[in-house]
């Protein structure tokens, strides 16, 4: 009997992914075609509702401005997400090792998520200026909570028999965490990572609305003030593509870290 080769498995996985994406692709094409047809038949002004073809054309003609404003948004997104990841990981370890800290800090973190970003963003810009730091802080504020909850839930999913076995072998608390609790949290961590990364770009753009010199948020604001909905939507498309790329990057990292488990599948 011939065993399947690794290349065959990867090819089968790619084929399966492609087939699963066909319905979404068809739905998107139908939506864009209906949008284009409606604009052509209704005679609506481009200043009200531009057609998809016009959005693509104007985005291409103004690609230099879009690219120049994408880099600051990407920098704020990655910087804020890195800070969020480090803070969530450190806080989760502290709350896992010290139950009192979990009871003390978790309600505060939950309350922080109830604060309206539209009210907090101008204050953060006022306190820290118009540079990169307030954007990083706001992105971290938006993204850290899903990561924290995912890590805490992952620690709790540790197999009790494994933990008791390590404990019977006189393993230290840190060693049990490193060998059992941390590996058990990986599927939950990557699920939280995918959720957070979708919020990161939106958080960076919103932070730029509150005050920035460059970025997709400022580009969208200027296009809106100039009554250019085509450029507004072109920037929205760029932000969506950026989010999808970052989302895909998290899936690639998960496959490298956890090659034995399909992406997005939590252990049951």
TrEMBL record:
<protein>
    <submittedName>
        <fullName>ABC transporter permease</fullName>
    </submittedName>
</protein>
<feature type="transmembrane region" description="Helical">
    <location>
        <begin position="188"/>
        <end position="211"/>
    </location>
</feature>
<keyword id="KW-1133">Transmembrane helix</keyword>
<feature type="transmembrane region" description="Helical">
    <location>
        <begin position="78"/>
        <end position="98"/>
    </location>
</feature>
<dbReference type="GO" id="GO:0055085">
    <property type="term" value="P:transmembrane transport"/>
</dbReference>
<dbReference type="Pfam" id="PF00528">
    <property type="entry name" value="BPD_transp_1"/>
</dbReference>
<keyword id="KW-0813">Transport</keyword>
<feature type="domain" description="ABC transmembrane type-1">
    <location>
        <begin position="70"/>
        <end position="250"/>
    </location>
</feature>
<dbReference type="GO" id="GO:0005886">
    <property type="term" value="C:plasma membrane"/>
</dbReference>
<feature type="transmembrane region" description="Helical">
    <location>
        <begin position="231"/>
        <end position="253"/>
    </location>
</feature>
<dbReference type="InterPro" id="IPR035906">
    <property type="entry name" value="MetI-like_sf"/>
</dbReference>
<comment type="similarity">
    <text>Belongs to the binding-protein-dependent transport system permease family.</text>
</comment>
<feature type="transmembrane region" description="Helical">
    <location>
        <begin position="21"/>
        <end position="39"/>
    </location>
</feature>
<keyword id="KW-0812">Transmembrane</keyword>
<keyword id="KW-1003">Cell membrane</keyword>
<feature type="transmembrane region" description="Helical">
    <location>
        <begin position="136"/>
        <end position="155"/>
    </location>
</feature>
<dbReference type="InterPro" id="IPR000515">
    <property type="entry name" value="MetI-like"/>
</dbReference>
<keyword id="KW-0472">Membrane</keyword>
<feature type="transmembrane region" description="Helical">
    <location>
        <begin position="105"/>
        <end position="130"/>
    </location>
</feature>
């Amino acid at each position: 009997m011939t065993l399947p080769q690794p290349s065959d498995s990867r090819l089968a996985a790619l084929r399966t992914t492609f087939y699963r994406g066909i319905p979404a692709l068809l739905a998107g094409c139908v939506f864009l075609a209906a949008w284009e047809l409606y604009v052509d038949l209704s005679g609506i002004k481009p200043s009200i509702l531009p057609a998809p073809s016009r959005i693509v054309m104007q985005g291409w003609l103004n690609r230099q401005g879009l690219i120049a404003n994408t880099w600051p948004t990407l920098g704020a997104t990655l910087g804020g997400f890195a800070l969020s990841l480090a803070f969530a990981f450190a806080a989760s370890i502290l709350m896992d090792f010290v139950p009192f800290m979990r009871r003390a800090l978790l309600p505060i973190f939950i309350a922080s998520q109830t604060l309206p970003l539209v009210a907090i963003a101008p204050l953060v810009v006022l306190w820290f200026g118009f540079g990169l730091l307030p954007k990083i802080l706001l992105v971290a504020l938006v993204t850290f909570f899903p990561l924290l909850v995912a890590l805490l839930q992952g620690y709790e999913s540790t197999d009790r028999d494994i933990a008791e076995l390590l404990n019977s072998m006189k393993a230290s608390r840190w060693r049990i965490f490193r060998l059992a609790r941390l590996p058990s949290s990986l599927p939950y961590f990557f699920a939280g990572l995918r959720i957070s990364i979708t919020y990161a770009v939106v958080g960076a753009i919103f932070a730029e609305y509150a005050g920035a010199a460059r970025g997709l948020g400022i580009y969208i604001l200027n296009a809106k003030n100039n009554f250019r909905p085509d450029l507004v939507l072109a920037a929205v498309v760029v932000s969506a593509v950026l989010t999808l790329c970052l989302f895909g990057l998290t899936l690639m990292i998960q496959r490298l870290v956890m090659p034995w488990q399909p992406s997005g599948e939590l252990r049951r």
